[in-house]
Every structure is written in structure tokens, then in C-alpha cells.
Amino acid sequence: MKITNFTLTPLAAAAITLLCGPGQLAQAQTAGAGAQGTPPSVVVTGSRIPRASLEGPSAVVVITGDEITKQGYKNLFDALNNQAQNSGFTTGADFGNTHTPSANTISLRGLGPNHTLILLNGRRLADFPTAYEGAVNFTNLANIPSSIVERVEILSGGASAVYGSDAIAGVVNIILKKQADGVDVNLKAGTTSRGGGGDRRLQVTGGRSFDKLNTLFTLEVLDRDPLWSNQRDFMAVRQGTPTNTLSRKNVNTGNYYDLGDTCGALGDLFGGSQFKHSVKKGTYCASNKVSPTFWTTQTKNLSTNLFGSANYALSPTTELFAEFLFGQNKTANNTRGPNWTAASLGDSYFFNKNSGVYEAWTKYISPEEMGGVKRYNRTWDDQASSVSLGAKGDIPGTSWRYEAGYSGSFYTSENHVQRPLANIDSFFLGPKLGVDAEGIAIYAPDQARLTRRLTPEEFNSITGQTNSDDTSRSQTLSLSANGELFDLPAGPVKLATIAEAGHQRFANKPDARINQGLFNLPNSDITEGSRRRYALGVEANVPLLKDLSSTLAGRYDRYNYAGRNEGKLTYNAGAEWRPAKALLVRGNYATSFRAPDMNYIFKARGTGYYSSTTDHYRCAQAGKSIDDCEFADVSPGSNYVQTGSKDLRSEKGKSYGLGAVWSPSADFDVTVDYWNIKIDDLVTNLDADNLLRKESECRIAKDLTSPTCFDAISRITRNAPTALNKPDEIREIRVNPINAAYQDADGIDLSARYAVRTQSWGKFTLKGNYSKSLSKNSRQFAGDVLVDELDKFTNQDWRDKLNVSLNWNVGDWSNTVFAQRYGKVPNSAQTAFLSPTTLVNLSSVYKVTPRATVSVAINNVNNRIKRDSTGGWPNYPTGSYSPVGRQIWLEFNYHFGS
After folding, report:
1. Residues in domain TonB-dependent receptor-like beta-barrel (predicted)?
2. Residues facing 346 on adjacent strands
3. Non-local CB neighbours of 353 within 8 Å, separated by 6+ positions
């Protein structure tokens, strides 16, 4: 059919299609994909238009469920975390002291967890209730059973024109299996050759078809042991200055009081490691095993995940669907024991009426005194659930299809932490006798109360458990349609439209008893907020020539939050050109956005501390350079207070990519892609180091009143220069989120696959994926110098990653060698780069009978642990590498049914 003088704007097409149906627009359509002789159409991440090929204008990496097992990945998160495109450093469940030890996330292109959109079957999930690093919202990847994963598709680059907010760095779409026949029971157990950190897993997956009804279910139970630092020889003892476990100090002189034979009498504490330690100004009790005793490098975890789905053929052209996912996760870890400092809510010292001087008393309570190290574990009880309901099918009288549905995702997290009670000062110091003229507390303590051994009963009388309650939810109503609009000489124009309405909410509620004075803690506020969103989008695939097609998409999103309305229009354009049958040349350009994190907007008051801080002012006062200043890179760093801002604007992103796919046969293909992502108005907290630099410049120049200097100085609270204890030391840095000026990143992805089929030796398949970041530039304010973070030792992201696998299938055997090469990262001292490291996994699967398979996997075959003592204990690059070493897994699967 010839069409002349026909124009239709994308938004008009969307509105007509969604509101009136596509019938009038599709009168002259020819048969679409899925007709006899053509491949079946699938929806590929980054597009809502079904297509016959996974290749498109944007590069999409696919990981199958089988590959997750064969390449030695422990679970779905492990598979995603090790992908070459995931170059960002994240603090996950095994990082140690993190805000979210019961959650795991990824950071595509190193742009942060909040810039990667995570989808489950194309639908959004609720954010984890607690903000990542106390700042940004993110999606937890720890509760999705790997046994029901059909495949995972990873799209790098902006996709807001298809999915809306968050898809700036890319999209991860976890696609679940749709059907199963019979029941599979899978048992898996693992251990480590160095000891500790064992794993056990049970999975039961099955399904059945009943005429028009098709069902699927899976149950997964995971049980993982913790790994304590003292279970690894290189972490069992902390070298250098030992930890102060018991001391009494004269604040006026800085000298320590001699505690007599106390340290020897209590020498059996901390595993028999406590001793008297001498310094220039006296002696105190100390141990070099405190940190290894209390620190878990791998969390303890017990989780149960349940998934179910059902599809019912209401008619030959209409299907009803429902699916739900429920996960319960119990986590425990330990990062430090109970450490008491007198008057910690004040100046951390008091006036001793007996001695007539100001004193500082400290005590680190040992596991032997409190009934075992696990007595001070922190625990989390998390529950995550999601549900999707809807209908999909053909629109009568057309070849168009529609889908209408509801999806909801809900998350609760209860945190249980041991804290000192308000009576702890009086337990050690006796009754408070008042305060002096400076507000310093007065006591008349008996030193014997400090130096004697505690009993577990006494410890229980001065500590209690705080219980926080954090929740989040996300709900969406959606209506979509796709089909062919009209014919062009090169083929039909295909169109997809989407309309959405959604609501999100979160709440962080600390234990109310904190503000009632039960605990020896500062007050803690409730943080909560909600927002609504609405969207209308359209996407078109236009065949320009026989071997050239383009994809165009546009979407308008509107958010309502904090009494504000903000709308964003995003678009993208892609092109595919096949100059030869075996060669595809592709390119894309997209705009994207991210609505401000709700935590950034609604944060009431959050506290924490930086991993390290440089006090530029005190270094300048001392006339020292940063290289030889005792106040530089002090770890742990200064405390901070973070508040939210309701004036934040949405981030705006731009991305483009160019690439080629060469596939001369079904057994060989090579891809190369260049990617580039830019973000304007990036939302981030004020940089503490920049504030400290500016404060130093202003104080040295005696400029205390100019707007910039007044702001910097007012954000930093210090002890008085005449303070007896720690004069001029930073007490607190106050920060809040702002829209920073700019960030960009670019790089190259390469992949290749080669298969060799033989008569007697079976099939060999070699695969490789490589990603290299070329640059990552940023500046906080317009006018600042653009800095490449990849050149800085403070940037812990991977510069490059390489994954290579060789699979050999012969008869009933399937064997895989999988090697991962990690590029350079900075050492702990941030003075040089660590050399690249390669880890190798082996796996072998044997089909014992047509129903039973047995597999063995060995991760980190060479038992390599990356060592790094430049920053001291724990002597390995935390977060970049694992201290576990070699892991051995045995797995058995049995199929019941046909």
C-alpha cells in the first residue's frame, strides 16, 4: 500500500494508540515478526518493540542462567558484580563497616549504584530501605533466586526515553523463566580451603501446565557462615600501634596514669593478648588482636526466597498473568566491639574530684567479659516482596498487542544493634556530682571500677539493643501497546507506546527510646518521604533502506514530591546498518535523567564518619606539607552530619555509542563498542575535603565574612584552641546534597565468541569480554578544573576488566574454565597502583542419569588472596578483592517428572 502526505508526531501517535486503540492506524499492516519462516520476536532490554534479534542499536550483554552456574558464580549478584561493564567500587555485604551489610548492589561504568536501573521482568523494584553509604537510594540484588533466572540483559548507556528516571549509566533487566515441566531439586554446598565461610543451598523448582493454565514456582534456602578476620593468618594480628583497651589519662598534661599490675592480671582477655604498652607519656593496657577479634569480613546470612507465577489463556488471543516474589533475609555481622569513653556525649573527659584534674577514661570490653564475641553482633531482619498482575494479548481486528498491569514491590528492614545504655558512665564513674563552670561533668570515681574484670551479667546491665524499622515501597500501573503502524518501501514502521502512573515511599524510623534518653547516644530523627510519577512515551522502529533502520523514542516523565512538580522530556535515536550480511554497524544517542534520590530530598539528620580526613588548617598552622603532616589522611576520619535538601533539581544525562558486530557464521562473532556518558547537575553531598581546604584558606587569610568563607567555616565545628583535650580538632562537618556541575565517563567494550564442533571430541566454545574505561572526569562547581578521577589514587573503580571462558561439552560432560583479570586499583595508602590480578574458576557437570546431574566447582583455583599492607590492617584491598581464598562447591540436581 502506498501512503502519501502522512505525518504523525510521536506524542500524538502515543496518545491515539493508548486512548483510542491502534485499529485505525494498522488497517494496511502486513504480517509482523513471528510469521512462518521468520524468527520469533523478543523484547530486548532498551526497547519495547519486539524484534527477531538480540542485536540492536545499543550493545546488550546477555548472561544466561546456565552461565551463572558454569562460570562458578555463587549467585545472581556475584554474576553481575563480576561483569566487565561493572567497573564501580561498591561497599556490599562483605565490605565490613557499611550502612547496608545485608544488601548488595552494582555500579555500571563507575557512576554509582543509583545511576543503574534494575528491573525484574521489565518492572521496577522497591529501593532498599536504607540509603547506600547513608546517601543514595539503590536496588538490592540479594533476594532473587538464581534457579529461576532465564537470562540477564545489561544495557550500558542512557535509556530514560524507554524506562524513565535512573537509567543514566544503564539498565539491568533480570528475566525469569516462564515455564517448567516437573520438579527439580538442587542441593549445593561449599567450603573454603583456608577454613570458615561455608555455604549451603537448597533449591526446589517446578511447574505444570493444566490445559489453559501454566504455573511455575521455586523455593530457595541459603545458609552462609560468617568469616571472621582471625580466621585468616594475615589478618589475625594487627601490626603497628596496638589498640588501647584500658587507660586513664590526665587531660591537662596528656600523661597516662600507671595502672599497676592491671594489664597483667587481665592478660587473658582478647584471647590472651592484652599487655602493658609503654609510650612517651606513660603506659596503658593494649592488644593487637582487638580488630581481628571483632571484625567479620563475610557476613552470616540465612535467607529464604519464594517465587511463583501463573499464566492463564483466557482466550486464544488474551492471557492473564500473575507472579510474586518473596524473600526473607537474616544477616549478622560485627565490625567493632563495645568501647566505652567517659562522657562521650560531651567532651570525652570529666573533672575528677578526687585527683583535682581533668581526666579521660577508656575501656574496650573483651569477648570474655560479655559472654562471647557474638554477643555484640549486629543483625538485620529483611523482608522483600513483589507482585505483578495483569493481562496481555491481541487488540481485536488488528495485529497490535497490548499489556495492562499492576506491579508493586515492598521492602522492610529491621536493624538490631547493641548500644550502651545511659547508665554506663555512672557504672564506671559513680554518681554524677554536677558540672563545672565550663559545663564539664564532675565525678569522684574509684579506679577499681575501671580496672576490674566485668561479668556478662554486668555487661548486660549497661548495654541494650536498639531496633530500627526501615520500609520502602514502589507501585506502578502501566498500559502499553505495540504493533505495525504503516508500510514503507523498506518495510513496516513499528511502534510501541507506554503510559505509567506510580508511587514511591520510604521511611527510616530509629528506635524511639533513643530520644527518650534510654541509651548513651545522640538524638536520632525519623526520615521519610514519598513521591508520585506519571509518564507517557512512544518508540518507533523505522526501516529507512533495506539494510538501514533507525529507532526513535521519546518519553515525558513528571514527578510530584515535597510540594513540587518537575517534568522531564527525554529522547533517543539509534541506527543499524548492515553493509554486509555478516556485519552490523550501530550507533545511538540518548538523553536521560534521574529524579533526585528521595533520601537526598527528605533526609532529616544523619550522622557518620569519613574513612579518612585531612585537616588542612592544622597542617597549615604547623607549616607542614600534606606529605609530612600528622593531621593528613587520618583514619578513621572526622564525624559528619548530613541533612537533605528539597530544592534539588533532576540530574540530566547524555550518552552516545558507536559499535560494530561481525558474525560471519553461527559459531563466530566479534563486537566492539565505544560508549560515552555525560551527567549535568549531578546530585552529590558537598565534598568534605573541598570544605576543609576552603576553610583553611579563609582562616589563614583571616577572611571570616565573605559568603564563601562564612559558609565553609560555619560548616566545620572544632574544639576550642584552648581545649584541654584535642585542641582545635574537628568535631563535626555539616554537609548537604547539591547539584554539582558535571561528570562524564567513556570507554571501550570488546567481546568475542568462537565455537568448534568436532565428531569425537564434542563442542568447544571460547568466550571473552573486555571493558576499559578511558576517562572519568568530574568537577563540583562550574569553573572548577575538570579532573580525571582515573588518574587519582583516591578512585577505587576498576580501570579495566577481562572475562574469558572456555567450555567443553562432550557426551554427558560439560566442563568450563573461567578466568577473570582485574585491572589496577590504588593501594590502601593511596600512593601507588596495585598490579592487575587474574583469578581462575573451574567447573564440571556430569549427567549421571537422564534425571540426575552432579557438578563440582572450584573458585579461585590458585587460592590467591590479593595482599596490600600499605594502609595497615586488614592487609588486603577491602571491597576490591576477597580474603576468602579457594572455594570448593559440590552440587547435585535431580529432576522429577517427564
Report:
1. 337-861
2. none
3. 433, 442, 443, 444
Three-state DSSP state, 872: coil
pLDDT at 651 > cutoff 90: yes
Which residues sit opposite 596 in a β-bridge? none
On whether the CB atoms of residues 428 and 448 are closer than 8 A, the answer is no
Cβ count near 761 (within 10 Å): 11
| 501 φ/ψ angles, rounded to the nearest 5 degrees | -140, 130
The percent of residues in the chain predicted with pLDDT above 90, rounded, is 74
Phi, psi angles (nearest 5°) of residue 82: -95, 5
CA angle (793 as vertex; 803, 798 as ends), nearest 5: 15
Sequence spans of domains, the chain:
10-230+298-334+378-419+467-605+645-686+740-896
**pLDDT tens digit sequence for 367-410:** 999 999 999 999 999 999 999 999 999 999 898 999 999 999 99
* Whole-number Å distance between alpha carbons of 159 and 58: 10
Using the CB atoms, write b or e for 621-656: b if 16+ within 10 Å.
beeeeeeebebbbbeebbebbbbbbeebebbbbbbb
Encode pLDDT of 631-650 as tens digits.
887 877 888 898 999 999 99
Q: Which of 172, 162, 94 is nearest to 138 (CA)?
A: 172
Radius of gyration of the chain (CA): 30
Q: Are 440 and 347 in contact (CB under 8 A)?
A: yes
In 3D, which of 487, 505, 507 has the Cα closest to residue 495? Answer: 487
Nearest Cα to Cα of residue 51 among 685, 549, 626: 549
Coil/strand/helix, residue 293 = helix
Q: Where are the alpha helices (DSSP H) in 92-167?
A: 160-163
Query: Residue 406 carries which DSSP code?
Result: E
Q: What whole-number distance in Å separates Cα of residue 387 and Cα of residue 505?
A: 17
Q: Give the three cell numbers for residue 670.
A: 566479534
* CATH code, residues 10-230+298-334+378-419+467-605+645-686+740-896: 2.40.170.20
Identify the CA nearest to 359 among candidates 242, 262, 442: 442
Q: Which residue has the cell 583455583?
A: 861
- Which residues lie closer than 8 Å to 462 by C-beta, 6 or more apart? 420, 421, 423, 424, 427
pLDDT digits (tens, 9 = 90+) for 469-520: 999 999 999 999 999 999 999 999 999 999 999 999 999 999 999 999 999 9
pLDDT tens for 148-175 read: 899 999 998 899 999 999 999 999 999 9
The string of DSSP codes covering 802-848 is: EEEEEEEEETTEEEEEEEEEE--EE-TTSSSEEPPEEEEEEEEEEES
| 458: amino acid identity, one letter | E
Tell me the pTM. 0.88
- Please give the Cα distance from 472 to 507 (Å, whole number): 6
Residue 466 cell numbers, joined: 536498639
